[in-house]
Amino acid sequence: MARPEPPHATDPSLHWIARFSAHGGPRYLQIVGFMEQAIADERLKPGDRLPPQRMLAERLQVDLTTVTRAYGEARRRQLLEGRGAAGTFVAAPKVDLSQVLDLSMNIPPPPTGIDLDDLLRQGVSQVLIHSDVDLLMTYHLGGGSSTDRAAGAMWLQDMLGPVDDSRVLACPGAQSALAALLLSQTRPGDTILAEPLAYPGLLAAAAQLGRRVVAVGADHEGMRPDLLTTMVRKHGARLVYLNPTLQNPTTHTMPATRRAEIAALATRLDLRIIEDDPYWRFAVHAPRPLAHYAPRHVFYVSTLAKCLLPGLRTAYVLTPEGQAQDEVLAALRSFVLMSTPLTTALSTQWIHDGTAATLATGIRQEAWARQELALRTLGDESLADSGGIHLWKALPAHWKGQDFVGRAREAGLNVVSQASFVAGEPEAQRGMAPHIRISLGRSRSRFELVHALRRLMELAHRRSLREVVV
User: The HTH gntR-type domain covers which part of the protein (predicted)?
Assistant: First the structure.
């Protein structure tokens, strides 16, 4: 049986409407999404008139209340404006050209097809119904309750298959988990091995704790096993840090064969690996984590901050098989006694009742849509396989990374240069082509994101700030 044609196939005035998705959330939010995408793509332009609500409801074969809610939400987002009897029109951009547009913070975008306000109200209400308020407001044991750990095991199941709850720790964010692992698995002055470009949070934690991060050479598949062996012997290192899926900042994903090689090496040399894997759910075909190949040697870290909501402040650590957790928990308690009970309880509630999975799907859909939009806006084919919530963009040869970041800030744009990610000594930057990381999630709308990307490229292709048109 043939699928019905979308409305615009027979009515040119509805060219901006796409097909409804069975899993795209409430239809009124899908309609708003169609508008926002069309405005970002310039298929709908300021001043374009939209059909009357009753007519649109008839054409889409939905209730009038659905379209009314959609138009109301679109006005709230400043996408539309009413002009009395003249009708409803696409609004002129409300972006303040003098405001700073943040492309520096790696956070997930708002979810497609989900009313986050309602979701939070319902979630907190369920937590209060099922929890003792006194217990929510008192001290809790570090590592989470048995219910929290069970939620963590459920969350990790997509990546790793069935997980033993007793191996899971619930932590107040990935940064605290990383710091606790560094404290418990190394001593002051020890060397931690990482790829040449690594997560700045790791670099900061290592520096504050008196540990040294040394880079291990990488190729197009990631850290090279032969060079890892050499550096282990040279520095006596016992701990390796890897971010193997949609790596921050390069967006590269380590293939399964390389993961298996490094896991075998960790087993042979008795190494410990911190596998920081916040972006696994954004990858289209993510390989199994390193923890799958070396379960006795890998601390697997998965945070909700990068794929759900940063405000949840919840990360799960799967500890290696057969390893006591006491030293990790002792290290964690030395600087953060416990997770915030209310937000941890909300994370647990959402994972157990399926809300987290629904939210993750909506965020993933929006992230993929923003990736596609960014690639079209930037016109850079080298970014086509990026995925995730950020891009690693090469700069024209006339720019140095830090100089560009400074000029961008003066022009009202925040980005991050490669200097923030260099593991080891600053000399390691020599020979690296200048790059910036562009984060796609912080912008409040797709239109704002496109506006920011266009301004960024305007700057990148000029040699002085005076030439930039903002």
Answer: 25-93
